[in-house]
Amino acid sequence: MAADSGKKPSANGGKAPAPNKASDSGGIAKRLPRIALMFLLALLYRQLQAPPPKIPGTPGGPPVTSPRIRLQDGRHLAYHESGVPKDQAKHKIIFVHGFDSCRYDVLRVSPELAQELGIYLLSFDRPGYGESDPHPGRTVKSIALDIEQLADAMELGPKFYLTGFSMGGEIMWSCLKYIPHRLAGVAILGPVGNYWWSGFPANVSREAWNVQVAQDKWAVGVAHHAPWLTYWWNTQKLFPASSVISFNPAIMSQEDMAVIPKFAYRSYAYQSRQQGEHESLHRDMMVGFGKWSWSPLELEDPFPGGEGKVHLWHGAEDLIVPVGLSRYISQRLPWVRYHELPTAGHLFPIADGMPDVILKSLLLGDDE
Ligand SMILES: *[C@@H]1O[C@H](CO)[C@@H](O)[C@H](O)[C@H]1NC(C)=O
């Protein structure tokens, strides 16, 4: 860039002009520490700045291989359809993926149940993930409005079902707040909780907070208190960064360990971070653990006439997302149908048979 500025190098190669007064050399010596400091600050600033994301479908960016819809502000969302064809569906469900995942990480309903109940599943890359454009301005609210626009662009009708896992589970609370009138029923799976949500007793938030390993307390604390440091914190090498980003086995429960081999099918896993870690992972942390202006505890029953249900599922042995906040929410919101799985960890939606159990309960209310 500097080369384009049009300035020609000065004849003496950019050096300071020859001193014509004896006192000048003293002046430069005095200024040197300040110049060095500014140089160091500039270096530090560069370290804090994330590189720009690699935009899908642009030179140097990942290719666009999936169909995409265009949002009102011009961003694209890439999507993936599964289950029965949309025009044969009796139940249309939008699935919202978690941290470090993409549209292919959809709930794997069995073909038999999909046929039997007429289930159509629509999943999409969240902004900054996979082949969806980044959204540096994304917020707790914007994702709910993105989902509403996606449903309309895909002509899902006035109401649709919604399910989300982990970070995508936390987004279910946003949808319940901002687009409740569009929902037919919701299944919230192992939702990430924000330790700073208001209305939780201090001991409940603290107990959940303390389930995390030390390095995650730091990573989550930085995302909340100093979001501008998030990029640096998670890329520096002095301190261990988020254990979720670095696949630390210390956060895997016994049942999670048993599910991990199933991840072999995730040959597409590279797509999650292909735009860069900042617009995908780091921004997820900055929004999810950021400062919310409301708490899920303030939400009202979206189905006061009983025309739909909100199901909340959490594994009691979850070491990635502590169960405490979900447990407390279920006590405070009587309209949330709570399923605590006593031996499950975080990855229960991937375990054999669980997708069908979760969707039957959502669509039929089978387990009540
Ligand atoms: C928090 O404190 C209350 C009141 O003392 C108690 O009933 C509850 O069990 C505690 N919860 C946790 C998670 O420690």
Automatic annotation (TrEMBL):
<feature type="region of interest" description="Disordered">
    <location>
        <begin position="1"/>
        <end position="25"/>
    </location>
</feature>
<dbReference type="InterPro" id="IPR029058">
    <property type="entry name" value="AB_hydrolase_fold"/>
</dbReference>
<protein>
    <recommendedName>
        <fullName>AB hydrolase-1 domain-containing protein</fullName>
    </recommendedName>
</protein>
<dbReference type="InterPro" id="IPR000073">
    <property type="entry name" value="AB_hydrolase_1"/>
</dbReference>
<feature type="domain" description="AB hydrolase-1">
    <location>
        <begin position="93"/>
        <end position="348"/>
    </location>
</feature>
<dbReference type="Pfam" id="PF00561">
    <property type="entry name" value="Abhydrolase_1"/>
</dbReference>
